[in-house]
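Hi Prof. W.,

I finally got the Eukaryotic translation initiation factor 3 subunit A prediction working! I wasn't sure whether to trim anything, so I left the full sequence exactly as given:
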Amino acid sequence: MATFAKPENALKRAEELINVGQKQDALQVLHDLITSRRYRAWQKTHEKIMLKYIELCVDMRRGRFAKDGLIQYRIICQQVNVNSLEEVIKHFMDLSTKRAELARSQAQALEEALDVDDLEADKRPEDLMLSYVSGEKGKERSDRELVTPWFKFLWETYRTVLEILRNNSKLMALYADTAHRAFQFCKQYKRTTEFRRLCEIIRNHLANLNKYRDQRDRPDLSAPESLHFYLDTRFEQLKVATELELWQEAFRSVEDIYGLTCMVKKMPKSSLMAVYYAKLTEIFWISSSHLYHAYAWFKLFQLQKSFNKNLSQKDLQLIASSVLLSALSAPPYDHIKTASHLELEHEKERNMMMYNLIGFNIDVKPESREVLSRSTLLTDLVSKGVMTYVTQEVKDLYHLLENEFLPLDLASKVQPLLIKISKLGGKLSSASSVPEVQLSQYIPALEKVATLRLLQQVSHVYQTMKVETLTKMVPFFDFSAVERILVDAVKHNFIAIKVDHLKGAIIFGDMQQLLSYLQGFESDHLQNHLSVLATNLNKSRLMINPSPSRVSKLSDMLPSLAEIIDKEHKRLLARKTIIEKRKEDQERQLIEMEREEETKRLKQQKKAEEAEQMRLATEFQERKNQRILREIEEREREEALALLNDAEKRGKKKGKKPIIEGEKLTKQSLMELALQEQVRERQEMEKKIQKQSKTMDHLERAKREEAAPLIEAAFERRLAEEKLHHERQQQLEVELSRGRHDGDVKEKYRLQRVMEHKMQFQERVINCRRAEYDRMRSEREERLSQVLQARRGEREIKRKMLYYVRTEEERLKKLQEEEEARKREELERRKKEEAERRAKLDEIAEKQRQREQELEERERLRKEAILRGTPIDMPTRPSEIPAAAGSTAPAAAGSTAPAAAGSTAPAAAAAGSGSSGGGKYVPRFRRSEPSGQAPAPAPAPAPPAESDRWGAGKKDDRGAPTSDKWRPSAVSGSKSTWSSSRFSR
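And this is what came out:
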């Protein structure tokens, strides 16, 4: 690697090598200079070097060298002078293009030179052998030898430039221009493969731009200028794709445009959108997507009508006719009725994507997406006024196909209209984005739709029809084509038809009746023909002899069948749920295991990569350190040798010899020696300069002394010349002024004759204008007075209305307040009554609770006395129980305490109590005590009575039966006494 003190030296060396025919060495010299780190500071010479370097690379077709050199040059001048990089790249592309064109022209000239009458005279044995072996013609061989290498190099040039400029925000215009050149190259030479690669390269550049957002010179897509360049490139890509008939790549370009606009949230210009929809119509028509094609035409019509004011009425008529015919060309049936679930999901996603692309909605909400359909489109065309622009033939065709019911005459009336429509069309004005419209392209699709409509209407009228009759009714196709249309319509459940070729008839039936037959083969129906026969016979029997009584439901005959079915159904659902859950758990475990294994593998791979990177980094650092040490040692050795050579040269010039021999010299000693020599030389130079400055001072002083009188004489002479010139100029000015004054005086005398007429005309004009002004002022004052009077009346009416409204509002407000006060009083009164009623109820409940507590306490004491065996006097108040029947009945009915049922009172106690109406209650244990009276006789046995619902079969502690009822125990006179036995509890 040669080193140069200045870049200019390398350029001179390269030119010398080029002159002697060593271009490879010259290229290597410039390449070493460009890639060297010593010359990273940009200079104007670098641009000259790069231009020469690019010329050598193009001459020798060295694309790799050109790419390396451009990358290094971009590093050098990116932050200093990026325009220089732009000039170099433009020069590179121009040279490559010129050489490719030159090679192509040479190949054409060679082919023309070989195009002679007598081919055998000019053919050599070598050419004959090549033609027999390779099978190529002369032009193919010349292209392969001359043109193809240069075209490959030109293509490589475009790829290199795009790769260098892909992340450069300062050269976005050059990037777009390069992409346009590459598109035109593919278009001109029909390079479809290279065009696909180019589109993929540009697509990857944008993807990487969004992926790596931390780059320093990354273009900002939100900037209008950057967005314009990117969109312009995508639209050019779309145009070239359609011209090359690469429809798949064109559709991907459409997706790229939509994705770019969604990314930056900004709509393109209307002119670009017109191109967008125009290309969409071509793409959808080629793909036979008639519905999407119609929607794209509709959007294009709306855009042209709204933004393109230069379109003529004829252009709008043709575009509107295309919109309506494209909508009518769409099949009238839905493709997704018979599709599977997976196909339905795919179709739904496709429709949503197409809706976004056609509607061009940047901010799309999933719940607001509409469904694209033929009926909706036709309704929109009618409501949006498209029908007002179409031709009369297209209107008549629309009414026949969509609104008329003519099963026998539909085809005969549609055919002349289609013939007229096929002749319509032509070129549009230059203001339109669509250059030409030909309505004849819709004729085959319209014939198919007309056939479908005819079949649909005939199926509503006839049940059977001969094949010959149907063939005569459809003049567009023969029966084989009609049969294909029938199969497609039946497949999508549009009509139900069965063709019987044996009888030569067509059977129109109900969709439900023929659905099973249309969905399967005849052999499938032969499997269950006996069951079908039995079902039909059963239906016939029921129609002939209907059953008198209605058969009960299965659920009435088998009540438990519904429950069994429900349980079995639930069990099966639970089993299905368990199986699905187990499958999901198993899949989840497998996924987790795979994820863990993948994580482990990635970790191990990452560790290995890190170890490898560390090893490579260590080796690279060691090699770098060693190289730096070698370079330092080499540089020190070269500097020492250079200092030694300088010392020897100076010593030879002055006749002196070096003090130290060359073998013992070191860098330090040479540097000290050179420093001493430099100090001595500087001192000598200063002395020489001082001596020379004195000499120059004396010389300059002598020159000025000699030149002083000459300068003075020249000044005097110049002063005299200028004074003479001033006098001549002044005299000339005076003469010109006198001439102008004489002319002005003559003009004044000439105009004084019309002064009087001028004053009269002026006075007349002023009087007319004054009268007009007075009239207009009086009219204005009168008009103002009328307006003021009208406004005064309006204010008066408004003031009265406001007063009336305010008074009415106050009255209504007062009534509302009185009503609210009355409601508040009523509410307070009700609250007070409710509080009093609750207080009374609480008091009654408290008394009842106290009475129950006393009864419980008395019963407790009685039980304790019984347990102790000691008599106890039961208190008679406040828990006194009256013995009379009339007094015990309320207590028995109203008290919640346990009633003492089944007890009897002795007759003696009742007789000797001294009360006429009854006696007090006497406990059983006191009835046997001696009290000076005879013991009461035993009560007579009561007649057997039916036990009540609570006390039947119960016994007391001693085994005696108990009863909760009161019964008569004794009769004294005409009154009966009632008693109660002890409580059974």
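The radius of gyration is 60 Å. Does that look reasonable to you?

Thanks,
D.
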